[in-house]
Design goal:
The complex is a heterodimer of chains A (433) and B (289). Chain A is built from eleven helices and twelve strands. Chain A is of the alpha+beta class and 433 residues long. In chain A, α3 crosses α11, α5 runs antiparallel to α6 and α10 packs antiparallel against α11. Chain B has two domains: 34 residues; 213 residues, MetI-like fold, CATH 1.10.3720. Chain B contains eleven helices and no strands. Chain B is flat. In chain B, α3 packs across α11 and α7 packs across α9. Chain B starts with 5 loop residues before the first helix and ends in an 11-residue tail after the last helix. The longest helix of chain B is centred in the first third of the chain and has 40 residues. The chains are: A alpha+beta (433), B mainly alpha (289). At the A-B interface, α1, α3, α5, α6 and α7 of A face α1, α3, α4, α5 and α6 of B.
Amino acid sequence: MTVMPLQIRTAGHFQRKRMMSFAVPAVILCYFAYIFVAFDIGGLAERANLQNARTLVSDAYSYKTHVTRDNRDGSIDVSIEGERKGRYLDGNSPAWVTMGNETVVDLGNHHIVTFRETQVTYDIPGYGLIVTEPGRSGVNAEFPTNELPDWINASKNRVTISTDAGRLTVTRNRSEVFRYFLGWELFFFTLDSPYHGMALGTLLRHAVHGEAGAIWSEFWANKMWRHGDVAWALFETILMAFLGTFGAAMVALPLGFLAAKNFSPLGSLRFAARRGFDFLRGVDGLIWTIILSRAFGPGPLTGSLAILLTDTGSFGKMFSEALENVDGKQIEGITSTGAKPLQRYRFGVIPQITPVLLSQILYYLESNTRSATIIGAITGGGIGLMLTQAINTQKDWEEVTYYIVLIILMVMLMDTFSGWLRRKLIKGDEGGH
Amino acid sequence: MAELTTADIQSNYLAQVRSKRIMNTILLIVFVALMASGFATANDRNAGGFWNGLPMLLDFPGDVISEAVERAHLLPGYFVKYLPSLIETVNIAGASTLLGGIVGLVMSLLVTRGLAPSPWLVGPLRRVLDVLRAVPEIVIALVLIFILGGGPVPAMIAIALHTVGALGKLFSEVNENASLKPIEGLESVGAGWVQRMWLGVIPQVAPNYLSYALLRFEINIRASAILGFVGAGGIGYDLRNTMSWGQGKFDEAAAIFLLLFLTIVVVDQTSSNLRNRLTHGSAKGEIHA
C-alpha cells in the first residue's frame, strides 16, 4: 500500500467524522426547533398559571387558618384550611383569636384585625389603621393614605388586604382573615381528638399508661389525612404490582417453552406463541386497562390483570430467548441417566434459567410498582387514585406533596427490596430450586 | 474421619436433599398462599367481581369491533383524522427521550467514579437520579397540567425527567466499562474535562448509549399515550374522549386502538432491529422498564 491513497483515505475519514460531529447536533437542534413550534412552547407563558404555581408551592409547606364572620348574623367561625374537618367547635379558638363582643385576631408582628359590631379594622404597623364598614350598599373603607399600595385591592363591594402576616377580605356578607403557618396542619391529631396539641412527653406518658392503642387509633383514623386509608392504598398498589408480576411470570413460563426454538415441537405453535406475545405487548397496558375496567369495574383486580397481561408478553419473549440460550450439555447429561422429558426440564433446564428469570422478574417488580400507581390513577385503585383525587380538588396540595413523598419512598423501597432479594436468591442459590 | 463410609455420605446427601425439598415446598406453599389471598383481596376491593365480570370481558371489545366492522369504510378517514394526535404522541416521546438522554448523558458522566470532575458530587447526584427514577411520570404530569394547562408540554417534561433518572443510571453503568487509556492520553496532551469526555469517552460508549436510548423511546411512547389519557394531549386524549362518548363513537376508538397498536409494534420492531445491529447481534438488550 502506498502512502498517498492511505493519506487520502484518512483525510476522507476525518472529513466524514467532522461532518458527523456537526451534523448530529444540527439535526437535534432542528428537531428541537420543530418541537418548539409544534408544541407552541412560545405561547406557554400565557397559558401557564403562575398563581396556581404559587398556591401549590406555598400550600405544600404551609397552611392557613380562616377566621370568618358572617356580617349578617355576627357569628364567627374558626377553621383550619376552611374545612369542616378542621373546625374549632363550640366557641373554642386558638390563642391568637380573642372572642367576645369584639373579636380580636392577632396576626403576629403587631398586625391586629378587629371585628367590631359594624366595622372591621386592620391595624398595620408602619401603615396605619384601616377601617372598613360592610353594609347593604357595599363596603365602605377608610385608608390612612389616599394613594393605595398595591397589596390593597378595594372596590365597591370588596376590600382585600394581603400582607406578609395574613390576608383580610371584607365583602358585604362576609369578613374573612387568613393567617399562615408553617408545616402541615393537624397531621397527627384533628381538633376533636383529645390528644390534639399535646406535647410529645405528655403523649408518651399517656401511652405508657395504657392509652397507646387509643392514641394509635386516633392517629390512624385522622379525618384530615386518613393515614389508615393511605396505608391501605399503598398496600393495594404494591399488591397490584406483586400479583401482576408474579402472575405474568407463572403464565409466561410454560408459554416461553412453546416459543423457544429448541423446545417447541411445532413451528406453527412457536409462531403463534410469539405473535401472541407481540400482541400482548403491543396492545399495551393502557388499552388492557380500559378493556378490563369495562368488565371488572375499577379496582386493584383490574390493575393486577392489566399488568399481568402486558407482562405476560414481555416475560414470554424474554423467557423464550433465555431458553434458546440454555446449554444443551446439561440436558444431555440428565437424559443419559434415563430421565423422562419432564425430569429433563426440571433438572436440566430450570436450574439454568432460574437466575436469569428471577433477576428479570424482580427488575419488573420494581418498575411495576410505578406502573401500578399509574394504572391506579386510570382505573381507580390504590395510591394513584388518592393522588388524582387530591390533585383534582386543586387545594389540598399538602396532601399531594405527602402522597408524592410516599410514592417515591414506596418505589425506592421496592427497588431496594427487589435488589436485595435478587442478590440473595441468585448468589445464595446458584443452582435454582 | 475414617468412619465416613459411602453409605454415610449417601445418607448425608439424601438428608440434605430432603431438607432442601421441604424448604422449597414450604416456600412454594407460602408463595401460592400469598398469590391466592392476594387475588382474593384484590377481588374483594374491586368494584365488580372477577367471576361476575368474566362473561362481560368480551362485550366491550365485541362492541368496538362490531361498530368498526359496520362502519369499516369510515376507518381510513379516522386514521387521517387522528394522525396529527398520533404524531404529537410520538413527538412527546421523541423530544422527551432526546432531552432526557442529553441531560442523562451529562449526569452519567458526573456520577461515574473515575470520570466525575468533582467526586464529592457523585453521591448526592446519584440520589437525585434515584428520586427522578422513582417518581411515576403521571405524578409530575398531573402537577404540571395544573400549572401549565393541558397539552403536550407537561407530558414532555414529566417523561423527560423520568428518562434522565433511568438513562443516567444505565449510561453510568456503561461508562464504568469504558477504557481509561484514551482519557489518560488526552489528559497528557492537556485536554480539559469536557474535551476528555467528548473525545475520549463518548466515542467508546456511543453505540451502547444509543441502544439504551432506543429502548427508552419504546417505553416512552407507551408512557406518552398513557399521559394523554389523563389530559396531556396526543392520541391518549382522543382515546379518552371517544371512549367517554360511549356507543356510537366506538368505531373511532377502534381506529385509535389500531393506530396505537401499529405504532407500538412498528417502533418496537424497528428499534429492536437497530439495537441488535448496534450491539452486533450479540447480547440482546435486557428490558428494564
